[in-house]
Each structure stands twice: as C-alpha cells, then as structure tokens.
Predict the 3D structure of the following.
Amino acid sequence: MLTPRENFLMAAVQHKKPEWVPNEMSDVIMVGGSFETFENGPFGGGLDGFGVTWHATESAGGQPVPGGKPILEDVTAWEDLVTFPDLDAFDWEGSAAMQFGMMGADRDQRVVEYSIWNGQFLRLTHLMGFENALCAMVEEPEACQALFSAITDYKIRLVERVAHYFKPDIITNFDDIATEKSLFMSPNTYRDLIKPEHKRLNEAIKALDIIPFIHTCGCCEAVIPDYVEIGTVAWSSAQPMNDIEGILKKYGTQISVVGGYDTNGRPGLEAAAQEEIDAEVKRCMESYGPLGSFVFMGFRLMTGAGPESMMEGIIPINAAVEKYKQI
C-alpha cells in the first residue's frame, strides 16, 4: 500500500489515478503562508515588509486583510515608493524549526508544501487598492509590467531561502486573479502582464528541484490552458463555479486539480450540518476522483482567528473524506 505522500504525488505530480483520492488537508505538511510576517504583517495585525498595514479578522477565519492608505497611488512612481522586505532579517532557521515542530512533520509520510502568499497581481492590489490596481493595468501597462517583474525578482530571492531552510516538495504561488464570476481582468491582459511573471517564477522554482503549484480562487478556467503552458503542475483551491470535470478530462494529463469542495455555497458555511458536508464530499469524490489528477481540498470559514477555529471547520470535512475517498 502506498504512503499518503506517495499517493498524493501520484495524483498531483505524476497525473495518474492514485490508490485513493488524496486529501490536501491531511496528507500535506503546510508551511509558509501566514507565518511570512514580512508578507502579511505580524499576527494580530500591523505593517508588513512593504509598509502595508494588515488587519486580523474573525469573520474570515483569522485571515489578515490589507487596509489603510495605499502605499502607491501612481504606479509610474513605484521605483521611488515601493520598498521590498529585507529577507535576510527574517529568522528562517527558527521559523522552519517552529513550523515543522507545530505540524508534526513526517516527510516519509506526507508532502511538504510551502505557500508564498500575495502573488504578483495581489501584491499590486495591496500596494494600490483593487480599483486603482485594475485601472493602472489598463492605463499604465508598462509600469505595471515593470513592477510585476520586480515583484518576481523578489519572489525568486524568497524561494531560494525557502528551498534552503524548508526543503519543500512543492511551492504554491497564491495569486487570486479571479472573482466568483470571471477573471478580474481580460484573459489577454493576464497573458500580457502577469503570465510572463508566473512563468518566470515557475521556472525558478523548478530550477531548485521543487514542484510549482498555483493557488487561484474564483472562476479562472479561461486561463487554465495558460497555467498548463507555463509549466504549472497543479492548480489549487479549485472551486465548482469552474467546470472542474471538464478541465480534468481535457487537461488532466498536464495539470492536476486541488480542491472541488463548494466553499462558497452552503457546505462552506459554519452552520453546515454534517449531512450537508458528507453529501458535498461524496459529490467531489464521485465526480472528480475517477478522472485522476485530482486532490480533494475542503474547508469552511469559521468565526474566530485562531488555529482551533480553523480545525473546527476542517475536522468534519476530513471525517467525510475518510468515508468516501476510495475511488
């Protein structure tokens, strides 16, 4: 019998049908993400390494959100106004020891996935605000392209340190370029301004013998062929407003899908009953599992800002996965 690690890699990386449907929320040692205080500010809120103010939330399950006066109002002035975090000032060794200690790391049994939050597009929105960022991409594409390139240069320096101290199997770039209905921008704008930087980051990750994933919430199926083209191994947090079944049938030998659970619907609510959770997990397993290249991931946003509230939302979903995960 395969280990959870071997089974996960068979589905997510080798694009094969595994022995059972892997579960991102139990088969993976998740590091990075919210622990990158230079990206997301300190726990409880404060300034990140760019000078952006972040606020902790309870309604969003403790996820930090940026706020306050934008750092950048005119994107053409970014070289004078944008400062990048000092990555050498961060305690990488101590952070790695702390995170692996918390997660009970067993690399023989589980995959190590490092999340780098605030990808190229998201960082632009954090610096300028969403409206100004989207207008800037239309009005000043050359300046935006230059800033995206500088952000990628910074991200490459970041993944070099991640590779050294965490030695992950996977690095996931979080860049939410879509809403529940469509992309924030036209597919061509994505292709002109952001796609080259996603590709460059993927190539840097692969050069370190690490597997590149991308996290994009929302309806982003229009650019899945682009994700395939730039060498993205898996697309995570896939939500069912996308045609997940169609994507797996068409691209499942080239890119894997991580997600499936209806986090935006009733099953994603704190008030969801176990019967509703079970039914949604069963739907995912029966609809997507037999197609291969699929890793289940499900979560609910709970009231509260601590890890306990997060686990309270995940535990019932993981229990349902154990019932229905066999293909």
User: Anything to note?
Assistant: The longest helix spans residues 141-166. The chain has a mean pLDDT of 95. The chain has one domain: 23-254.
